Amino acid sequence: MSVARVTEITSSSNNSFQDAIEQGIARAAKTLKNVEGAWIQDQKVVVENGKISAYRVNMKVTFILAE
């Protein structure tokens, strides 16, 4: 039997939502062992001078706890 835990993280990119997701997962995998998946809870942009300056995602990352 395995037990999973969910943690919420926010990631940002100057390029795209996809890049923000990939950076967030890569960073989570450095700290958390056994990352199994993620749910993108929210997406938003930061606007400066009428242009998008950052793409942000709020995600819930699921990982399996070690026994």
Automatic annotation (TrEMBL):
This is Dodecin. InterPro entries: Dodecin, Dodecin-like, Dodecin-like_sf. The lineage of its organism: Bacteria, Pseudomonadati, Pseudomonadota, Alphaproteobacteria, Hyphomicrobiales. It comes from Mesorhizobium ventifaucium. It holds the Pfam family Dodecin.
